[in-house]
Inverse folding.
């Protein structure tokens, strides 16, 4: 049957282009964390419909992107044309088409919690990064998952949920300690952690979401570095 991202990629694109969580919360905080990428080679892992890649290209970087969903890659191609190198690839498989230590920076936005073997995927991303290069990733804040799902904050388990009526998702919940241990196990060091604050545009357009995100985080972001 495939994931919702494979079955209904255009629905995600429509949503993520303008939604408070994607357009006004995740992307601005992640792009700030990514920093200056002018003239750099950036890998957009789990690129979806190319909304990140478009922003990163506009900042003067060269972009390679991939996603396991054929439909997502088609949408990214329609958005970006030949300005980025795009392909279908499952992050659970080795990135055999990218040489060791060839990428300057990696973006992994709202993807890691969908993976069963996060350490293997992070290890493979580390392999293709230049020593000293960085990977920025965003994921559900574990407190947000705990608050919504209940049960034990310390549970490490896959969750199946339906969002907004008919958007069925499968992702992993786990405590902060487990995520940090996985980063370390994959050979990366944490350079920075961000619990983003919603900005004025989100306040003006989505006041209720602004109130909510002002008092409790929805996502958490990490800037990981491959040690030299
Ligand atoms: C929430 S969307 C985020 C898309 C994009 N990063 C963004 O923020 O706009 C999650 C994406 O991860 C992709 N994905 C999930 N598991 C994957 C895997 N094993 N390999 C590659 N992509 C994957 C999905 O197809 C989907 O496009």
């Amino acid at each position: 049957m495939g994931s919702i991202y494979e079955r209904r990629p255009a629905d995600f694109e429509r949503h993520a282009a303008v939604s408070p969580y994607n357009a006004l919360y995740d992307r601005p905080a992640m792009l700030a964390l990514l920093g200056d990428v002018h003239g750099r080679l950036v890998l957009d892992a789990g690129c979806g419909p190319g909304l990140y890649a478009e922003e990163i290209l506009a900042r003067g970087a060269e972009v390679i992107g991939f996603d396991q969903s054929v439909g997502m890659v088609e949408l990214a191609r329609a958005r970006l044309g030949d300005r980025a190198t795009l392909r279908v690839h499952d992050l659970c498989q080795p990135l055999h088409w990218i040489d060791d230590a060839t990428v300057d920076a990696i973006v992994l936005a709202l993807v890691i919690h969908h993976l069963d073997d996060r350490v293997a995927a992070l290890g493979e991303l580390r392999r293709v990064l230049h020593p000293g290069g960085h990977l920025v990733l965003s994921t559900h804040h574990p407190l947000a998952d705990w608050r919504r799902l209940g049960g034990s904050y310390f549970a490490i388990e896959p969750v199946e949920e339906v969002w907004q009526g008919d958007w069925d998702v499968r992702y992993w919940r786990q405590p902060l300690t487990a995520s940090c241990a996985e980063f370390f196990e994959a050979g990366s060091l944490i350079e920075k952690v961000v619990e983003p604050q919603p900005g004025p545009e989100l306040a003006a357009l989505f006041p209720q979401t602004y109130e909510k995100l002002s008092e409790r985080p929805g996502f958490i972001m990490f800037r990981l570095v491959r040690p030299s």
Q: What stands out?
A: The mean pLDDT is 97. DSSP finds ten helices and nine strands in the chain.
